[in-house]
Amino acid sequence: MDPGRRSVLETLKEQVPFMRRALSSVSLVGVVLASIVLWAQQADQPTASAESPVRGLYNWIHSTGDAERNFSFYREVFGIELARSPFAGNAANVSPEPIRPVSQAGSDALVWDLTNTHGSRFRTVFMRAANTPFGLELSEFFDVPRSERQANAWDPGASKLIFMVRDLDAIVPRLKTRRAPVVTIGGMPLNTPSGRAILVRDPDGYLVEVRQASSAAVTAAKTSGDVIETAIWISGARRERALAFYEKLLGFQVRTTRTANDSELRVNGLTEGRLTQTTMAIPGIEVTVVLAEFARPTTATPAAMPFEWRVQDVGAPQFQLEVAGLDALLERTARAGYRFLSVGAKPIQRPFGRFVFAIDPDGILVEFVEPTANAR
User: Fold this and answer.
1) pLDDT digits (tens), the chain, 376 positions
2) In Å, how far from its chain's centre is CA 275?
3) Which residues of 240-250 are buried (b: 16+ CB within 10 A; e: fewer)?
């Protein structure tokens, strides 16, 4: 909340007892006081989305250990195809760039500063799922140390893609053919309040949840394809701390908060504990982000293990957000005590715009992209 606005609010609250005495003989005192209290309550609400620096989501990115292998998985199981980079311009009839061979992986000093991977080589794979308004991206880094630790859903900093699909019974055999490891207890889809669901791992061990879409969602789908909707899941150690970043700093819109039932725990590979899920929307785009907080017995194994992601680590999750007013956002981010991945917390400049990486409280990487005026 703006300091000037807070002082006005506090002043009004302090004056309420005096106004009550002064206006006790006036029949409208109840209306006046009720209006003041209502205004004060509204003033305490989170920043409105219209004031958010976020304007949309270009890509959800996770790093991979083998770009060809992982793209093959997503294409064969979910019908996901290669796509053009959102920063490649608007030329018509231009085909997506094929996956570069490892021998042609790029090396760029600006990207080194952006990702803090000096001396690395890298390649990216841009993809698009049906009925999904944002891109999916795989990034692969070479010549720098990287971790290949696989996340559990309850690890702070873990993430997963959630695909709502047209026909779950058609997807499950494809997962079996690909020998995708199943996390869900029992190894088969379970009934949940959001539909039948199963949690598996892609060839890197990255978590992918597959849900049966509702009949209404299937009917409303704008295009054909196996995927009806795509959502993003992130796990945090403390929900309030994560919301301070996503809701208060970035203006994500909180929709609902609920406690999961036993079947939802089992989907995530657990038989006990508590799972609290908060759904959020990214301003400027129809994308659902699920913020998860797990509470498990202290004796539970394996224990939750927080992540300290580096962009080159296999499975490293990354939001790529379109933003406006980048300089002011960077100042607010630093003032709030959040860390940056990019060297010196300084954006790099590209023809499309400026790019810089921040880090959320649980280690998830968040890239701010401010496009130039002619790129919007």
Assistant:
1) 444 444 434 444 454 444 344 434 434 444 333 443 334 433 333 343 458 999 999 999 999 999 999 999 999 999 999 999 999 876 667 789 999 999 999 999 999 999 999 999 999 999 999 999 999 999 999 999 999 999 999 999 999 999 999 999 999 999 999 999 999 999 999 999 999 999 999 999 999 999 999 999 999 999 999 999 999 999 999 999 999 999 999 999 999 999 999 999 999 999 999 999 999 999 999 899 999 999 999 999 999 999 999 999 999 999 999 999 999 999 999 999 999 999 999 999 999 999 999 999 999 999 999 999 877 6
2) 18
3) eebbebbbebb
What domains can be seen in the chain, in order of their start residue? 3-43 (no CATH), 54-295 (3.10.180.10)
Find tokens 């799922």 and name the residue: 129
On the question of a cis peptide bond just before residue 302, with omega within 30 degrees of 0, the verdict is: yes
Gap between the Cα atoms of 315 and 309, Å rounded: 9
Which three-class secondary structure state does DSSP give residue 148? coil
Alpha helix segments (H runs only) across 103-204: 109-115, 168-177
